[in-house]
Amino acid sequence: MIKKIFVYGTLKKGYGLNQHLGKDNFICEGRLKGFDMYGNKHYPAIVKGNNTINGEIYKVSQEILQILDSIEVNFDREVYEVTGTKGKKHLCYVYVLNYIPMGWEYIKEGEWMR
Fold first, then answer.
1. What is the pLDDT of residues 1-48, one digit of tens each?
2. In the chain, where the domains are located
3. Of 88, 84, 99, 85, nearest in space to 32 by CA
4. Most distant CA pair in the chain, distance
């Protein structure tokens, strides 16, 4: 079972939903290749693409995953390899969309900063 999650938006440090992950569960910063980021004024989403997404990797329990699934109801939770600090590879859950939401802005830099 996968016990890590890669987050790139409102679940990152400094954002309101990070409280569900717990600061003691932070592992390192990470980069996910092969995706594009889009956002509205409230949160981002990623879809398969050609860019790199910047985010954070956390340890997660089954209980935390259940909470996150209830928050990320419009997203699919999938497993991808994420490159962490010093190039270490981590197999992580990632919340993704399989479509680009209408009217959302493309975030070329691949980093949510709102």
1. 789 999 999 999 999 999 999 889 999 999 999 999 999 999 999 999
2. 4-107
3. 84
4. 37
pLDDT digits 0-9 by tens, 50-80: 999 999 999 999 999 999 999 999 999 999 9
- Predicted model pTM: 0.95
CA nearest to 31, candidates 4, 57, 60: 57
Q: What is the DSSP letter of 12?
A: S
d(CA 110, CA 103): 18
Closest by CA position to 11, among listed 35, 50, 46, 36: 46
Burial category of 78 from C-beta neighbours within 10 Å (exposed 0-12, middle 13-18, buried 19 and up): exposed
CB count in 10 Å sphere of residue 9: 21
The neighbouring-strand residues paired with 70 are none
Q: What angle do CA 65, 108, 11 make, to 5 degrees?
A: 20
Token digits for 73?
Answer: 């109801």
- The CATH topology of domain 4-107 is Hypothetical upf0131 protein ytfp (3.10.490)
The tokens for 53 are 């997404």
